[in-house]
Write a structure and sequence with these properties.
Elements: H1 5-17, H2 25-34, E1 42-45, E2 61-67, H3 74-77, E3 80-84, H4 87-101, E4 108-113, E5 124-132, E6 136-143, H5 147-154, E7 162-165, H6 174-178, H7 184-187, H8 200-217, E8 222-233, E9 236-239, E10 242-246, H9 262-266, E11 271-274, H10 282-292, E12 300-303, E13 309-310, E14 313-316, E15 328-331, H11 338-347, E16 353-356, H12 368-382, E17 390-393, E18 398-401, E19 406-407, E20 424-430, H13 433-442, E21 447-452, H14 461-468, E22 476-481, H15 488-500, E23 505-510, H16 515-525, H17 532-541, E24 545-546, H18 550-562, E25 572-577, H19 580-588, E26 594-595, H20 600-612, E27 625-626, H21 633-644, E28 651-656, H22 682-692, E29 697-701, H23 708-716, E30 721-722, H24 725-754
Parallel strand pairs: 11-12, 11-15, 12-14, 15-16, 16-17, 20-21, 20-22, 22-23, 23-24, 25-26, 25-27, 25-28, 28-29, 29-30
Antiparallel strand pairs: 1-4, 2-3, 2-4, 5-6, 5-8, 6-7, 8-9, 8-10, 13-14, 18-19, 18-21
Helix pairs in contact: 1-2, 11-12, 14-15, 18-24, 20-21, 21-22, 22-23
Amino acid sequence: MLIDSAAIATILRKAETERRGALLETEGFGILTAMGIRVPRQVFVRGRGELKDSAVPAGERVVLKVVSPAILHKSEAGGVQIVANDSDVIVAAIEQMSARFGEIDVRGYTISEYIPYDPSLGNELLIGARWTAEFGPVVTFGAGGIFAEFLAKSFRPGSDSAILSARLVAEDEIMPCLEQAAISRLVFGGLRGQSGRVDPQAIAKVVADFCAFANAFMPDPIAELEINPMVLSSGHLVALDVRGLLSHAVGSAEPARPVAKIRNLLQPRSIAIVGVSEKLNPGHIILNNILGEGFDRDRIYVVKQGSDTIEGCQCYPDIEAMPGRVDLFILSVSAAQTPGIITRIVEGRWAESLIVISGGLEEKQGTEAIVARMRGTLARARVSDWHGPLINGGNCLGIRSGPGHYDTLFIPKHKLPAPAVERSPLAIISSSGAFAIARMNKLPLNPRYLISLGNQMDLTLGDYLSYLADDAEIEVFSVYAEGFRPLDGLRFLEAARRITATGRTVILYRAGRTAAGAKASASHTAAIAGDYAVTRVLAEQAGVVMAETIADFEDLTKIFVLLRDRRVAGLRLAAVSNAGFECVAMADNLHDFSLARFGKETVSGLEELFRRCHLEEIVDLHNPVDLTPIMDDGATADAIRAVLLDANVDIVVIGCVPLTGALNTLPPSNGHGENIHNSEALAMRMAAIRRDISKPWVAIVDGGAIYDPMVKVLEENAIPTFRTADRALRLFNRFCAARVRALAQERSALGSLAG
């Protein structure tokens, strides 16, 4: 990544002195030359009068371009012409352009050598670097010319091109990233019968140079530099056009947040709360929920005039009457009251952390003064020896902390009962409180932490993920993001890389993907609207599992938590069902799986089982295994156990259409004699198999709501259960593929250490 930084800096300083919005093409080509990138030979003339004294490049034709800071898209404006290499023709073309652009700020014209190339797909490329608010400098490689926009609209977001974080990508990671782009198969020779059009390492070098450039010169003084197109001519890469956008923003870095105080926030020794009434208001519900989690009453201070105690907790008439500084102060008051209370807390150093429940702060017009007052008070504290408190919120439901023994969610327990399962090694971090509690209400999990951080006026998604990455008790981090604060996306990626490098999992659902969604996000939590394709690609490069839908977010969280102790050795699948259609659906939705070939012992055992159940004349034995609706609970469990024990099988999917009378799949009722809780019932037998055999597997219960209790029994016994085969196969594939990648990385790391 060697570039001539001094030469580039000289060019940019000259451009900066004019306070222009864009580079001239001559300056852009000068930068590319300093980066070692080939450009056409050219001369610059201010007008027709200078042409006779200039050495025009050789060749039958030349390319004439207007040079103007006001014309970014020269071709569309008529500022590019291919003309005969004849002085009279060139002069006439210059005069024509001069007349066309009239009063526009035209600095002159370039006369460049004509570069012959085949303009078909794969021969015109785009390479660019741009500054993004969320992730900092990002470098892109993809199809150029007229194909760029077409491919971007035709492919899944991010798959048409390679996107890299200039700050995070290592040199040996560049080529694998490039190979993910659709255009790379054409350029590098990945299609059958097609040879490579250029040395892939030549592309990788240009991308590496762009990364070095972006890290050195973005965001100030330049926000974007793009080659489009870079063409393949006689096996060489040549940049035919370059565009650069300058940036003159003068920003001051915010004082660093004392993120170590997240410990005070998540595991407080003392809590104060303001906004509690004698009657049941949100503040009172919060107090009840804190007490319900077992927090010591004697360490809870209620700030309220006119009361001695509420729910057995001591009340104080004002903040200054409290016995001392608290670890956590909860503000459940109106937006109008919030700034004054925060000011008093911060100036008096009354709390190490705050949860601000109030909404209507940054989301609503007319609150700018309130927010400015908050930020001013906090900024002054940040530069003190104390560094001030951390603030979670506003516009949030707050936090439910298992280790901290508290719950600030102002939802009554009868509306959101705690899951009746042991604590899960899961952290849910969400921009939206409603999203978080809706997921918690549906999942058979009991998160270690549930964090609703609202509009991130202080603490951010990246702050939490960075801090919690060091918590070895958390194995799955499920994140719902409506947007990132400036550069917090980069912080999030850095933390995600640390987490996934240890074999743990980060799941991300990114909202605000469309223009309408981004507008709604900004209205909801003042989120920064980012580019979803950039988020997706950079997150996946960091090892993050991206959830395409909210339902996927739920099921991926469930499967990664419930199967966290299961090692995926490969992708050889065995599938079992009591319905023929489900066997077909399984075979139709293999994705990265391959159907395992059963060993002789397994085949022999299953054939004996089929004879015992009189199935040998009804169905043939193959994978997927069709048990038919005839097989009962015991025989079905025997078949499941047999395929799980096969050495040729890595993972298993168990399907059950529960309507057959041969299986015990319903809870007790006066209308029948079934009981899913009976040890002989299929669900309880499957639970025993889950305890006995460590191989990863999932279940399917394809039936209506009356079979929800069976699903509940299975999931309470750590068996991820789906309601359709196609969904089960798709999401189980996501889990297994991630686990196989993690295993490969682990082996690679061990190999490096051994070497």
